[in-house]
Amino acid sequence: MLMKSPTQTLTVREALRDAMAEEMRADENVFLMGEEVGQYQGAYKVSQGLLEEFGPKRVVDSPITEHGFTGLAVGAAFAGLKPIVEFMTFNFSMQAIDQIINSAAKTLYMSGGQMGCPIVFRGPNGAASRVGAQHSQCFASWYAHCPGLKVVAPYSGIDAKGLLKAAIRDPNPVIFLEHEILYGQSFPMDHDSDLIVPIGKAKIERPGDHVTITAYSRMVGVSLQAAELLAEQGIEAEVINLRSLRPLDTASILDSIKKTNRLVCVEEGWSYAGIGSEVSAMVMERGFDDLDAPVARIASADVPMPYAANLEALTLPQAESVAEAAKAVCYR
Amino acid sequence: MTEELLRYYRQMLLIRRFEEKAGQFYGMGLIGGFCHLYIGQEAVVVGLQAVLQDKDTVITSYRDHGHMLACGMDPKGVMAELMGRADGYSKGKGGSMHMFSREKGFFGGHGIVGAQAPIGAGLAFAHNYLGDGGVTFAYFGDGAANQGQVYEAYNMAALWKLPVVYVIENNRYGMGTSVARAAAGSELFRRGEAYGIPGKEVNGMDVLEVKKAGAKAAAHCRAGKGPYILEMDTYRYRGHSMSDPANYRTKEEVSKMRKENDPIENLKKKLAGYEEELNNIDRQIKADIAGAVDFAQSSPEPAPDQLYTDILVEA
To answer: Which residues of A touch B112 (CB under 8 A)?
Structure first.
C-alpha cells in the first residue's frame, strides 16, 4: 500500500528558514550573514533558530554596513564559500549595489570564466505596510536588467523553500526577492527535503482560457483574487506566477497567450522600464500574431510611496484594478 | 643574500620592462582603453611577495600589472590580455584592469576605487572560515584611502580579527589630486587606529625595507591578531593612466625621484661586483618580454561566439 506523503502548512517565513537550514546542513561552506540574523533571530524572524543550530561562525551578525559586508561576502564567494547575504530590506541593498553589480555579477565574464561568485542576496523587497517611500520599493527591474545575475521572486511557501534551495545551490549570484507581507502567510508544504523549484520556470497558478495575467511575489496573490472576481463575470483568467525574472520563462508566457490571446502584466514596482515593460516587449516581438488586444500593464502609481493609508492603497495595484484591466483587454 | 637581491632585481626589472613595453604599445594603439602603469612602484609588490606563503591571497586595484607578474602570472598571458586576445588571462574580455589567477592566488584587478578593500576582507574571512592559515594582501592607493567602504572593511576586519594586510600604495597623487588636497590628515597608516589596527609607514622605494615591514605585518595576521596597515611611500613616474599628461606636478619632481630614489637603481648599487649576473638578468628579461610580445601578437582575437560565454556558470 502506498503511503500518501503527509502535507502540512507552513508560513513563508518558516519555509525560508527551513531552506537555509537544510542547505547549511548539506554544505559546510554555506553561511548566513547580515544585520540581526543571529542573536536577534532575524529582523523579520526569518533566521529563527539558525544561530543555535549552526553557531556564530556560520550565522554572522554584521554591523550596519551594507556596502562593506556585501563586498566581504563577495570576496568570500570568490574564495569558494557560499554566502547567503540577508538585507534587512532590499531598500538597503542600494548601499551595496556597486558590489552586487560591478563585483558579483561581472567578474565571471571579466575573468574569462575563472572567477565564479556563488552567492545569494535575499531579503524583503517591495512595499510592507505604511513604512513610506524609503522602505517601500520593488527592485526587481533594477537587478533583472543586469547580465550575470539571476533574479527570483517567490510567492508561495513552496516557491520560497524550493527557489531558495535552488538559489543556494546555484553557482551564480542570485537576487532573491522576498515580501514582508507574505512572511506570515501560510501555504501547503511538501515534506520533501529535496524540494527544489528550478530557477527559470514559471508556474501556472490558475488555468484559464480568456486572458493571461503574469505576476510575481505578492502580486500573484492579488492576481488570483482578480481571477476570482473575473470568474464571477464569466472571464477565466490564466494566472502565471513568473517565479523567476531573470532568466524569464518566455515559453510559458508565449504558450499561454497562444491560448488566451490577451495579456495583463502585474507588478508592484513602477511601470517605467519595469518587468511588465520587458514582458510586453518580449510578447510583441515573439507573440505579436497571437495578440488580439494591446498588452496592459498594471503597476504601482508613478510616485514615491506615500505614508497615508488611503494614498498607499491608491499607489499599490489592487485586485479590482487588475480585473478591470483584464476586462478591458477582453473588450468587456 | 646576494641571490635574494638578484631575485628582487629580476622581479622588479621584469615589471619595469613589461610596463615600458605596455606603454609603448598603448601609444601605438595596440592596447586600448585605460592602462595604468606601475613604473616606479615596483619595490612595493616585489618586497611583499617575498613574505607570502602558499595559501596567501592577493587583491589590488586597476594598477595591477606589477602585482600579476610578482604573483608569478605569465607575462605572455598578461600581455595577450592587454591586447585583447583570446590567449589572455581573461580570454580578452577583461583587459588591463580585470585579470585573475586563482591558481596563483591573485583575485584581481578591480576597476572600482576601493572595492577590493571589503572583497579582500572577504578573502581573509574565507581563510579563517576554512582554517587554511592564509593571509590576504589587499592593496589600494592613497586615493582609495578616502573611500567609505575602506573603513567599513577596517571595522569588520578588526572586529572579526581577519588575517588581512592592507597595503596603501601612497604614490602621492589620486589621479591628479595630491594627498594634501584630498586627505584630511596625511598619515594614512594611522587611519586604522580607531579600530585598533596597527599601522606603519614604510619607505616603499626600498625593497628590503618593504619586505621587513611585510614580514612583521604577515606575522601579526598569522598569529590571529587581525588586520595590519602598511602605508608604502612610493611614486609613479608616469601619469595616472596613459592618457594623463601629469601637469599637476613638475618635471623636476619626477626626475628628482627617479634620480635619487629609484628602487631598481638603488638595489643595483648594492649589487656592485655582480655586473655579469645583472647583465644576464637584463638579457633574459629582454628575451622574456620579446617572447610575451610575440605570443600576444600571434594570439587571435576572441572568436565572436565568445561574446555570450562566461556570463553565468552552467548549473
So the answer is: 98, 102-103
Distances in Å between the Cα of B30 and the Cα atoms of A192, B60, B74, B80, B245 are 58, 24, 19, 10, 19
Q: Residue A1: which pLDDT band, with cuts at 50, 70 and 90?
A: very low
Q: How close B78 comes to chain A (CA, Å)?
A: 12
Q: From residue A192, how far is each of A8, A204, B61, B207 by CA, in Å? A: 11, 21, 46, 60
Query: Beta strands A244-246 and A150-152: pairing type?
Result: antiparallel
A210 is catalytic: no
∠ at Cα B122 (B118, B128), nearest 5°?
140
Altogether, the residues listed in chain B come to a count of 315
pLDDT, tens only, A35-49 = 999 999 999 999 999
Q: How far is A86 from chain B (nearest CA, A)?
A: 16
Q: For chain B, which domains are there?
A: 2-306 (3.40.50.970)
Contact flag A112-B93 (C-beta cutoff 8 Å): yes
Whether this model's ipTM surpasses 0.90 comes out as yes
What's the confidence (pLDDT) of residue B261? Answer: 96
pTM across the whole model: 0.96
Beta-bridged to residue A312, according to DSSP, are: none
Amino acid at A67: H
Distant-in-sequence, close-in-space partners of A295: CB < 8 Å, separation ≥ 6: A263, A264, A265, A276, A279, A280, A283, A284, A329
Give the integer Cα–Cα distance in Å for A195 and A162: 5
